[in-house]
Amino acid sequence: MVRSETLSFHISEYRRRLGMFSALKALLFGATAGLFAFGAAVLVMKIINRSGFVIPAVIFAAVFAAAAAAALIFLFPSYNYTAKKLDDLGLKERTSTMLALAGSPTEIAALQRNDALAHLGTVEKKQLRERISTLSIILVLAALIFASVCSAIPAAWFQRTEEKSAEEVWQDVLEMLREEQERLEQQGEEALSDEMKDLIEKLENSDSILNAIGDINTAEENAVDDVLNGEASPRSAREMIEVLEEAKRMLLDLEEAENAQAGEGEMEIMIPGEGEEGEEGEGQGEEPAEGGEEGEGQGENGKQQPDNAGQNGRGSSEERPDEEEKESNKTELIYDPISGSVKYGDVFSVYLSEYLKNSEGGEIPFELKDAADAYFNSLDR
Amino acid sequence: MDNNINDRIKFFSGRFAEIKREISKDIIGQTDVVDGTLTAIIAGGNVLLEGVPGVGKTRLVRSIGRSLNLQFSRIQFTPDLMPADVTGTNIIEKDDSGKSSQRFVPGPIFANIILADEINRATPKTQSALLEAMQEHRVTAGGKTWVLMEPFFVLATQNPIEQDGTYTLPEAQMDRFMFKLIMTFPSQEELRDIVLITQDTNEERANQVIGGSDLLQMRETAKEIPILDDVLMYAVRIVTATHPELPTAPETTKNNIRFGASPRSVQALVTAARIRAMLDGRYNVSYEDIEAFAAPVLRHRIKLTYDAIMEKRTIDQVIAALISEVGIRRFSKPSSGADRNPFRRP
């Protein structure tokens, strides 16, 4: 009785021959899968704003290897399949029947086996071929085109959202300010509404974020003035200042994002009173000119009792014309990391806004309220 | 001859070639018909032969009878032929003493090879007498049953031209014929050779090659030829594909066939394929063996649709198209319920 393993041995070499074609098909399949994965990876990298082809190449290699290995396992021919391919070459099912009768002890099985082996010897290995389908070749080419196209797509196509987002931010800010202006107008706050209109007009024509922030700061100051002059209610002014602060925050975020994208280096932070004399001094010189006026009022305040703040402040301002004294009279050292300088009015308006809010909320002690009001009123901004 | 199967196969395949050579002395060309007729005889089947007059139907049967040393008988079917004329009848005889007795006189059917000429001219009753003998290899006459001698083979003919006044065989009766073979008009070269042969003598020249017992042994030997399960299923799929009512029917069947072939077709296909493999000196059946007999087995068992008839499609064309459609699914596996024994001996 002849075992099937012995018979399989006789067609092993033919099976290996067919295995070569299976390997080629597996490689084509792996290449197709790998190239599609490569193209997809490149696209994703560009969408998430990453550059380079190392990761897509690694993905291609991994997918290619896995797909080719899986395809080879699936496509590698069995002995029965090999027998059928051999029979197709004119052996008239001798090989397939031989494998099917393996293990049969009958005389006819032995005769059939000998007959099959004799005819098998007449088949040359090179006669055995597998057809590579046109579809698989088309798929490989399609995958190659896909990968090429994905690689060739400019990354800038996916960065337009950044440009759009800058415009959108501006539009959102203006929209927000317009809504606030309408609200103020409906509430009858004419002075504040006019301030808003002026600000919106300036922002629409603004050419930089810094200028826009400066205009917003000016609007905040004017709002405070309107309150102090009795032309606007503190509550409306506070709400308006909150909206303006939100607008500033949005514009500052946009500025930061643009700077990060542009890959700017570290921003120079100019600290008043430190660094080189020349530039800083000049920079600070300008400030003290404004702050000097403010410092005249505040310089004394920092040292004197609150109930005497106003008078003392004015009195002291007249008595201390020096820039150094004016600088030393500043009560806060707060720095704008972008411009490297401070507009005193920015700090003041925030504090005044907070004071007004707390005052209306009844959080300022009665005995201090009059003095504080007098102090703020006395300040020459 | 040695009883060894290998020797038997070699002996029979050699003898078969010799038989064909002997027959070729009397029949020029018609190789498909000769092969089919011999295969049917070995298989124990019967053949329906269609051909115009004068193509050599009677000569073929005579020649086969000579080469196989079988008793030959010819029955000319006419409309007035009675069943008793075929099977035989009891006659009353008086002996010398005047005593009457009945004696059965066997009819022409009591032979090995019967040529039933123009079977469609006889009445259905007479046809059925022959067909019963074909199926059961026995005759009932005079109250007694007579067993016909083996091998018993009927070659019935039909004239495709003269259809007036004929009684077409019903499908159930047609199914009893293993093959339907068509004798075509010979080519010019063949006709020339026919004339040259028959000018000398009209007698058959074939010599005996084997006897009836050898024929029976060939039949038994052929049964031992193994058939692969895939090849068997291929035969099954071909026959199944002729049925338009089945969901698996190909487009050719749905468009051209009204009624499909019976299960007897598969038996005929496999038996004939085994004989062909044996006579080819092979020890296994191939797809080619199945396909070689698809047309002879199916052409009288399927009915074309009226559309196909009107478009003048022939049955052979439809069968060829069917084989093409089924053939591409040659490597498909058998259904889950099928026995997976690769070594089939139905």
Describe the structure.
The complex is a heterodimer of chains A (381) and B (346). Chain A has 381 residues and is mostly helical. Chain A is built from 16 helices and no strands. Chain B is α/β, with parallel strands linked by helices and 346 residues long. Chain B contains 15 helices and 11 strands. Chain B has helices at residues 5-23, 31-43, 57-67, 83-87, 124-136, 171-174, 188-200, 212-222, 229-240, 251-256, 264-279, 287-292, 294-298, 306-310, 315-327; strands at 47-51, 72-76, 88-94, 100-106, 113-117, 138-141, 144-147, 153-158, 179-183, 257-259, 303-304. Chain B has a 5-stranded parallel beta sheet. Chain A binds chain B through residues 84, 87, 92-94, 96-97, 100-101, 104, 107-109, 111-112, 115-116, and chain B through 4-6, 9, 224-226, 228-231, 282-289, 331, 342-343.
In terms of topology, how is this protein built?
The complex is a heterodimer of chains A (381) and B (346).
Chain A: H1 4-10, H2 12-47, H3 54-75, H4 79-91, H5 94-100, H6 107-120, H7 134-152, H8 160-187, H9 190-204, H10 209-228, H11 234-262, H12 277-301, H13 309-319, H14 323-328, H15 344-360, H16 366-378
Helix pairs in contact in A: 2-3, 2-7, 4-5, 5-6, 8-9, 8-11, 9-10, 10-11, 10-15, 11-15, 12-13, 13-16
Chain B: H1 5-23, H2 31-43, E1 47-51, H3 57-67, E2 72-76, H4 83-87, E3 88-94, E4 100-106, E5 113-117, H5 124-136, E6 138-141, E7 144-147, E8 153-158, H6 171-174, E9 179-183, H7 188-200, H8 212-222, H9 229-240, H10 251-256, E10 257-259, H11 264-279, H12 287-292, H13 294-298, E11 303-304, H14 306-310, H15 315-327
Parallel strand pairs in B: 1-8, 1-9, 2-5, 5-8
Antiparallel strand pairs in B: 3-4, 6-7, 10-11
Gist of the model:
Chain A has 381 residues and is mostly helical. Chain A has 16 helices and no strands. Chain B has helices spanning 5-23, 31-43, 57-67, 83-87, 124-136, 171-174, 188-200, 212-222, 229-240, 251-256, 264-279, 287-292, 294-298, 306-310, 315-327, and strands at 47-51, 72-76, 88-94, 100-106, 113-117, 138-141, 144-147, 153-158, 179-183, 257-259, 303-304.
